[in-house]
Amino acid sequence: MAINGAPRQIKTLGYIGLGNAGFSMSSNLPQNGYHLIVHDLDQDKVKKATAWKNTTAATTASGKADPAAFKDCDAIITMLAHGGIVKDVLLGVDGIVTALKPGTIIVDTSSSSPFDTKALGKELAEHQLHLIDSPITQTYMHATDDGRSTLMVGSDSPEHYELIKPVLQCMATYIFHMGPLGSGHAMKTLNNYIMASSICALSDSLVTGQKYGLDPQTMVDCLNVGTGVNFPTMDTFRRDALTRNFNSGFGLALLVKDLGITEDFMKHSNFETELPGILRGYLSHSMDVIGPERNKTADHTECIRGWEDRSGQMLKRTEELKNIPREDFEHRLKGLNRS
Q1: 63: CB partners within 8 A, 6+ apart
Q2: What is the pLDDT of residue 5?
Q3: Helical H runs in the chain?
Q4: pTM of the prediction?
Q5: Long-range contacts of 212-217 (CB under 8 A, 24+ apart)
Q6: Which of 240, 278, 280, 336 would suit a FRET pair with 44, their CA atoms being 20 to 30 Å apart?
């Protein structure tokens, strides 16, 4: 029997948003037998995606989404910059909801405010549509390429969650049902808040450490086998900041936006903390240093330019990136799993 009008089985998927993460995440779906209908403002990305098997485009000649192309979809997945764009694509002028069949599940993997998500869920319910939030995080950058990302899911309906779960499993190795609608986006904002805290503390440490005479790369190597280890030391700053490649795939403007969501989340939770605003201030300064012509596209690891500006020195560049030794992980796993 169908669940409140939802299909018994998901077969046809709409995917809206083929950015850095969206393109690689969606590529795993047709490989697992789903018929995929894609849309993005970047026509080149759409063209590349339609080269996959079982994949067609929902993009019109003008570059807009054709709502009618999604009429047979059992579920729609969005991967867009923020919740405002998600709402506009669904409910705005030329929004696709009017073409969707009752019971269609909409999965928002974007980074959005949990409160906006709950409000959007109520609006979509009036159209007999079911919203699930499922933002992503990763064990390493570009884990989305191999379907090895992590999804944090919020759903009011356990039945709809179980129905969409096989789809999510094509895109992620780790799936956590965090609670009702909005819970996934709540976890996402806290995840990025913690990451941003690490970035700012690490950037402080690198510039002051170098001023004292410490080598930045040696500092990161030391932190990675010490209690100061974190995602930037293991991945993004090690690979992209100190090498000055600045190509992690996650934008600085998005991180600043996410910290605004964190501030809002803390206020709604009646918890008083100045840290999200302080972090956002430092990272916003980095955007100012980078300049308006590039700050919307700058990689988040390029934030070190703000710290270099305030410290009056440029961090020493890592010329040759070395792999992290396997034994570093083997011995720490034994220690972490000790009885």
Answers
A1: 41, 43
A2: 56
A3: 20-27, 43-49, 83-91, 114-125, 158-171, 183-212, 216-223, 231, 252-268, 275-290, 304-311, 326-336
A4: 0.94
A5: 215/316, 216/242, 216/315, 216/316, 216/318, 217/242, 217/316, 217/318
A6: 240
**CA distances, 191 to each of 110, 195, 293 (Å):** 14, 6, 29
Question: How confident is the model at residue 6, as a pLDDT?
Answer: 54
Which candidate, 190, 187, 192, 166, places its Cα nearest to that of 177? 187
Greater pLDDT, 38 or 62: 38
Intra-chain end-to-end CA distance of the chain, in Å:
47
Q: What is the residue whose two structure tokens read 């807009």?
A: 64
- What are the structure tokens assigned to 316, written together? 């020493």
Q: Which residue has the tokens 């379907």?
A: 147
Contact 19, 48 (CB under 8 A): no
Walk me through the domains of the chain, giving residue ranges and CATH numbers. Answer: 12-180 (3.40.50.720), 187-331 (1.10.1040.10)
Burial 65-91 (b: 16+ CB within 10 A, else e): bbbebbbebbbbbbbbbbbebbbebbb
What mean pLDDT value characterizes the chain?
95
The two tokens of residue 102 are: 């009752």
Q: Give the pLDDT confidence score for residue 2 in this predicted structure.
A: 45
C-alpha distances (whole Å) from 178 to each of 101, 123, 151 are: 27, 22, 10
Question: Above 90 in pLDDT, residue 173?
Answer: yes
Tell me how many helices (H) and strands (E) the chain has.
12, 9
Q: Which residues, in sequence order, are bridge partners of residue 132?
A: 107
pLDDT digits 0-9 by tens, 262-283: 999 999 999 999 999 999 999 9
Torsion of CA 21, 135, 37, 65, to 10 degrees: -90
pLDDT at 321: 94
